[in-house]
Design a protein that fits this description.
Elements: E1 3-9, E2 12-18, H1 21-31, E3 35-36, E4 47-52, H2 58-61, E5 64-69, E6 78-79, H3 83-98, E7 103-112, E8 115-120, H4 127-135, E9 140-143, E10 146-149, E11 155-157, E12 163-166, H5 168-176, E13 186-189, E14 192-197, H6 201-205, E15 211-221, E16 227-231, H7 234-243, H8 253-265, E17 267-273, H9 276-293
Parallel strand pairs: 2-4, 8-15, 15-17
Antiparallel strand pairs: 1-2, 1-3, 4-5, 5-6, 7-8, 7-9, 7-10, 10-11, 11-15, 12-14, 13-14, 16-17
Helix pairs in contact: 7-8
Length: about 290
């Protein structure tokens, strides 16, 4: 059976087609009222994507999930139990590969009082665990995966979607927030076991509210380090931030100037930590606090 839904996830609208009931169930569970029937939506659709079965006889032998957008298939087929995780990764790919009205940085983004901090970080750094914690402790989630920055400004637009938790962080975050909403588990993906956590009500209610980037923090969890922080010079911050920008080269000169603007108008730090509470205090008092003083 073919299922179709519209996902209204500001600033984009996605038309989603799936053969997998589990995809629709997880989609509606995590996105709630932002998912609707296509017949009830009369607005513009930015992207049309699908999660389909394997074709032909392969479906009878080993039914898999395939992601497509405009007949492009950027990923190899995955086990059908990984279909919803594949959709989430596919939505990341669609925006990163096609969006040119924003500078897109691979990072988490959280805000307080209209001031945002971006957290670019490689896999294994603990970024999503940090995102889940901050988003339930007074910070507004704008994104777990990508900062949508208006070129030549410090303005970041929310793209509020579930937080992607992996491996040990799944059980840890579930133990912190047992009453929150989580997807079914996708086992043995290329990232290990994966679960998605629904964004909080505040993040969704304010998904159209932009913020100004005042801090760039490169976090790295280290169980042996309580808290160490190093201020990063602008040249290093520029290079590292540019490496995390999906469409930096596509935007060409505008991309270069946009990254320069960010590092000139935000303080940048590298932080190694094992205490989320200490990191939260540093972000609030030293990063946001310094921005308010300015």
């Amino acid at each position: 059976m073919v299922h179709k839904r519209i996902l209204l996830c500001s600033p984009f609208a996605f038309h989603i087609t799936s053969h997998h009931q589990s995809v629709i169930e997880n989609l509606e569970n995590l996105y709630g009222k932002r998912v609707m029937q296509p017949d009830n939506y009369h607005g513009f659709v930015d992207y049309r994507v699908s999660i389909t079965h394997s074709g032909g006889i392969r479906r009878l032998i080993n039914d898999q999930a395939r992601f497509q957008c405009d007949k492009m298939e950027p990923f190899k087929p995955l086990n059908r139990t990984q279909a919803f995780a594949m959709l989430e990764w596919g939505l990341n790919w669609v925006v990163a590969a096609h969006e040119v009205s924003h500078l897109i940085i691979h990072s988490a983004v959280l805000a307080k009082d209209g001031k945002a901090v971006v957290f670019p970080a490689p896999p294994g750094s603990g970024k999503s665990t940090l995102t889940a914690y901050l988003s339930r402790n007074g910070w507004r989630l704008l994104s777990d995966e990508m900062a949508l920055v208006t070129p030549l400004t410090s303005t970041v637009t929310p793209f509020v979607r579930p937080v992607c938790l992996k491996n040990d962080s799944i059980h840890l975050v579930k133990s912190w927030y047992p009453d929150d909403t989580f997807s079914t588990i996708a086992k043995d993906t290329h990232k290990g076991d994966v679960v998605h956590m629904a964004p909080g009500d505040m993040a969704v209610a304010r998904e159209s509210e932009q913020a100004e980037v005042v801090g760039i923090v490169f976090p790295r969890y280290n169980k042996d380090v309580f808290f160490d922080v190093y201020e990063m010079d602008q040249a290093t911050a520029y290079t590292t931030l540019a490496e995390n920008a999906f469409n930096y080269t596509v935007l060409q000169e505008q991309g270069v100037k946009s990254v320069v603007h960010l590092v000139e108008n935000a303080t940048a730090f590298e932080v190694e930590y094992n205490s989320l509470e200490e990191l939260d205090s540093f972000l609030t008092e030293d990063v946001l606090g310094a921005a308010h003083v300015k």
